[in-house]
Amino acid sequence: MNFNIKPKYDKKINKSDLVKLFWRSIPYEHSWNYERMGNVGFAWAIMPILKKLYPQKDKFIHALKRNLELYNMTPYIVTLPLGISAAMEEANATNEDFDETSISAVKLALMGPLSGIGDSFFWGTLRVLATGIGTTLAIKGNVLGPILFFLIFNVPHFIIRYYSTFLGYSLGSNVINNVENSGMMDKITKYASMIGMMVVGAMTQEMTSVNFTTKIGVGKSASTVQSLLDEIFPGIATLVLFGITYWMLKKKLNPLLIMLIILVVSIAAAYFKILGA
Length: 277
Fold this sequence. Notes:
The protein is mainly alpha-helical and about 280 residues long. It has helices at about 15-25, 40-55, 55-65, 80-95, 100-140, 145-180, 185-205, 225-230, 235-250, 255-270; strands at about 215, 225.
């Protein structure tokens, strides 16, 4: 990797900081949660760098909160956005004119595309290959089966995870330098925010299911409310649920309380056969 970069801001992050970032990224999903997904793992991995960049307590807390925003990423390549974020935090800490909102915007914009690539390679290709080789030997009673499965999957995983840390930091440094020189930061922040919101919206539609089982009509001509809604406006139920949830968040309700409300209402609706699987 080429670290002989001369950006406009002062360099504070060194190789040992990035190595520590790599090691701390490994338990990224150990604290995965339904409220903000991988945010705790992301913040914990980058925390030592934030402490180094922001020695003032108030600035450190502000930066840590920024990195506790919702985030979800294939764990095996999470070091790439971590490295980019580290470079952007470094620029923010040493350049008063840096737009800190661009840090969150770029993170969100990368979340969908990188996860798609990571899932396709690690879950869709490498895991299948490792499983095929490992199980072929294991069903014959060969102890190499589980060992080869472990090695085939994890050796590429850790190599890619390690070098992605440095690649992300290097890319971030180069991009920031070029962007600041060209004056395009405002546009990048705007478009990255738009892409990020689209990713979050797509995740909401993909991960949320509402199915009304109540029937309208009699006999064979009866149709469920859900089928009628799908013909008129597919996904409208999910959109309405999202709107209600957003309204409750705007009213400053605790996200855990919102989840409890949705759970109770869903159980009651299923009991009275209004909703179903």
